């Protein structure tokens, strides 16, 4: 099963061969660092929202309630689904969801196993940058823990918080400027280092790390102490003979990337964006922002 550190997986109820999920789009006070909150928008109380896990061939019904002060929609990014279910009401026959209303997105999972995302596609210049996003995993029914021992998902985020001067970290609740083309806080699964959750591993494990990015910035993600293979792009597997060995992978906006590696070098290893500004918290020292650590069993977490 895919683990999204700091973010739960979305539960479902199965009736008559259909998996029923429920998402509530709502304002969320998101704690990105201890005592530092941003007034975000999210799903089911978190931003990013809970991770959805399904299998190829599943029939799903995802009821989306709108508790926001403006209409919204949900786009199932990368999924091959009917036009009316794709969630872009400005172009498609897919409806907008007005405040206080809901819509049932129902479709069959036609894609193969892979990493996808969901996010708002109504007024995205505002709603996406407020944090309306989450992960959507199509799992491989043939895969077992003998194949991959640790399977992590990390959603990358960037936010401009208003009324906090550069070079300062003050406890408080801050509003997001969704129209800014720059950011001062960079997150993994809604948190900044050192508040991000580490990725525990054991020596000899095969590790998969999935990345997703909806926001304005691109992120070259670098892992210390290990080489990895890029195994999938946008939910599509890369043939083994075409997989490249790397230590840094670019996760550009609108894409997902999967990497796999063998845990063969014990220690506590940084995993971070390599843009220097993206590993700071509002331009303060020391290390912060879009970073975490892959931590072997027996080593302290941080």
Q: What's the CATH topology label of the largest domain?
A: Immunoglobulin-like
Count of discrete alpha- or pi-helical segments spanning 4 or more residues:
1
Poorly predicted ranges (pLDDT <50, ≥5 residues)? none
Question: The biggest beta sheet, please?
Answer: 7 strands, mixed
Helix and strand content put the structural class at mainly beta
Question: How many domain regions?
Answer: 2
- Count every beta strand, where a strand is a DSSP E run of 2 or more residues: 22
Mean pLDDT: 97
Query: What overall form do the CA principal axes indicate?
Result: globular
Identify the quaternary structure here. single chain
Q: Over all CA atoms, what is the radius of gyration?
A: 19 Å
How far is the first residue's CA from the last residue's CA? 25 Å
Strand content: 35-45%
GO molecular function: copper ion binding; oxidoreductase activity
InterPro entries: Cu-oxidase-like_N, Cu-oxidase_C, Cu-oxidase_fam, Cupredoxin
Protein name: Copper oxidase
Organism: Paenibacillus protaetiae
